[in-house]
Amino acid sequence: MSNIENFQELQERTRDNNRFYEIFLEIESAKLEKSKDQLKELMRAHLNDMKVSIKQGLSNPQLSVSGMSGTDSVKVVERYDKGKKLPMNKLFGKILSYALAVIEENQRMGKIVACPTAGSCGIVPAVVVAYAEEFNISEEMQINSLFTAGGIGKLVAQEVPLAGAVAGCQAECGVGSAMAAAAIVELMSGTNDMIINAAALALKNTLGLVCDPVAGLVEVPCVKRNAFYAIHAVSASELALAGVETVIPMDEIVVAMKQIGYLMSPDLKESSDGGLATTETGQSIAKRLEKLWFENK
Ligand code: SF4
Fold first, then answer.
1. For residue 295, how far is its CA from the centre of ligand 1 (angstroms)?
2. How far is ligand 1, taken at its centre, from the CA of residue 137, in Å?
3. CA-to-CA separations, 35 to 19, 40, 47, 141, 145, in angstroms, rounded
4. Cα–Cα distances in Å, from 26 out to 30, 153, 178?
5. Is 174 in the pocket of ligand 1 (CB under 6 A)?
6. CA geometry: angle at 230 spanning 237 and 22, to 5°?
7. Which member of 5, 14, 126, 162 lies 3.0 to 4.6 Å from 98 by CB, making a disulfide possible if both were Cys?
C-alpha cells in the first residue's frame, strides 16, 4: 500500500470504514517488509516497555541527578492511597501519576518509549494504560490504539520535524497530546472522523507552546508538562466523542504549527536563552549544575 501524504487523504482512504490502525499497519508492513503480525509483536513489545516504565517510575521515586524532578508521580499516588481522592475520578489520578512516572523514569536514564519524543514520553503511555485498566480494554485494542497514535504522529512529522529545537514544544508535547487523544478515541471505539477531530482539537490548543528548558535539561517544564498534556488529550477526546468538530482541518493546523514554529524566536526553541530558563531561579539552577559538573569532572 502506498504512503499517505496528509490527513485529508487518510480520511478519504477510510471512507469504506477501514480503521486508521489497519491502514497504518498495511503501509508500515509494505514499507518495512514485515508481516502485520510481526509489526503487532513489535508494538506489543513497545506497549510492554511503556507499562514497565510506569511501574518502574512509580516504584523508584528518586530524584534525578539535577534534583529538579523524580518524586512527583508518587505524590499523586499517595494522595489516593491516603483516601484524599481527587474531585474527579480514579482515571484522572492514574493518568497524572502514570505520565509523571514515565518521564521521571526518563530523567533517571531508565528505559522509555519516545512517543513522539523522549521529552513527551509520558503522555501516550499514561492514557493508553490508564484507560485500559479502568475500562478493562484488551491488549489487542491497546496495540491498535498505539498504531493509530503512531500514524497520527507520523503524518504530522511528514510536514514538521518533531523537535523542540525546530518548532517548540508544540511539536513535542503538543503532538504527543494529539496522538494520545487519537489513541483514546480508538480505545473508546469512536469513529475515524472522531479520531481526527480529537487529534486536531488537542494540537490546535497547544499552538505556540515554547521550549524553554531550565539548564538545558529535559526536566523543567517538561516533566509536569507531560501530566498536563495527558489530561489535555482527555479533554480533546471527550469533546470529539461528544461530536464536537474542529473548524480548522487537521492539515491546516499542522501547517499553522509549522509556521508558528518557524516564527518562534530561537531563544524559545531548546536553546535555554529565554522564558523559564532565563528566570532568576532558572539561571541559579543552571549555575549550580554547572558548578557541580566541573567539580565532578
Ligand atoms: S519544553 Fe522542550 S525539551 Fe521540554 S518537552 Fe517540551 S520540547 Fe522537549
1. 27
2. 31
3. 18, 9, 18, 18, 18
4. 6, 16, 22
5. no
6. 55
7. 126
| 181 contacts 240 by C-beta, under 8 angstroms | yes
Instruction: Identify which of 226, 43, 197 has the alpha carbon closest to the alpha carbon of residue 126.
Output: 226
Grid coordinates belonging to 249: 482541518
DSSP-derived secondary structure letter, 77: H
pLDDT digits (tens, 9 = 90+) for 50-96: 999 999 999 988 999 899 999 999 999 988 777 665 556 789 999 99
In this prediction the pTM is 0.96
Please tell me the distance from the alpha carbon of residue 254 to that of residue 84, in angstroms, as a whole number: 41
Q: Give domain limits for the chain.
A: 7-295
Per-residue pLDDT tens digits for 181-232:
999 999 999 999 999 999 999 999 999 999 999 999 999 999 999 999 999 9
Proportion of the chain in helix, strand, coil states, percent, rounded to 5: 70, 0, 30
Ligand 1, atom 3, lies closest to the CA of 218
For atom 4 of ligand 1, the residue with the nearest CA is 222
Q: At what angle do helices 139-157 and 192-204 cross, to 10 degrees?
A: 50
Residue 137, SS3 per DSSP: coil
Torsions phi, psi for 244 (to 5 deg): -75, 135
Provide the pLDDT for residue 88: 62
Q: For residues 250 and 179, is the Cβ–Cβ distance under 8 A? A: no
